[in-house]
Amino acid sequence: MEPYLVWIIAAFALVTIELLTGTFHLLVIGVGAFAGAAVAWAGGAFLTQAIGACAVALVGTWLVNRWHRAHRPGSVNDNFLDFGQPVVLESWVDAGSRTARVKYRGTTWDARVASEANVEPGETLIINGQDGSTLLVGTAPPPK
Question: Which helix (H) or strand (E) holds 129?
């Protein structure tokens, strides 16, 4: 059997396994095996084939890792759709513990005011987070 056929079989096997896992790492190693097949088809020695396959696989793996770091999920607040939305302070439940009732989306919610600023009923506050069913609100917009 010709060496380039062995590389191609290995490449298809790796790409097929990759389709089952979905991590992209086996995909780039499979692409590296295709590079080894190209070098073998061009008449390169086995060492050259292996170096070509490894170089392509290493560069591909580096690119996949870089992509994963750039698209890493952020904080819990990334999926919190109410983050940064305005609410209106209706009344204080306990001003000492900074708990209050706020109006948001047409209903009344329990809230905990994070800032130490003196806010009065009727003022607009911003949602900075959530603790169970209690909204965490403040006077300043949440940091991005």
Answer: strand 124-131
pTM greater than 0.85 (yes/no): no
Task: Supply the Cα-derived Rg of the chain in whole angstroms.
Answer: 29
Please state, in angstroms and rounded to a whole number, the distance separating the CA atoms of residues 131 and 136.
7
* C-beta atoms surrounding 34 within 10 Å: 19
Report d(CA 40, CA 92) in Å as an integer. Answer: 77
Q: Is the pLDDT of residue 86 over 70?
A: yes
pLDDT tens, residue by residue, 34-82 = 999 999 999 999 999 999 999 999 999 999 889 888 877 666 556 678 8
User: Measured in whole angstroms, how far is the alpha carbon of residue 21 from the centre of its chain?
Assistant: 18
| Angle, in degrees to the nearest 10, between helices 3-21 and 46-70 | 20
Determine phi and psi for 54, rounding to 5 degrees: -65, -40
Q: Which residues contact 24 (CB under 8 A, 6 or more apart)?
A: 18, 64, 67
In this prediction, residue 4 has a pLDDT band, given cuts at 50, 70 and 90, of very high
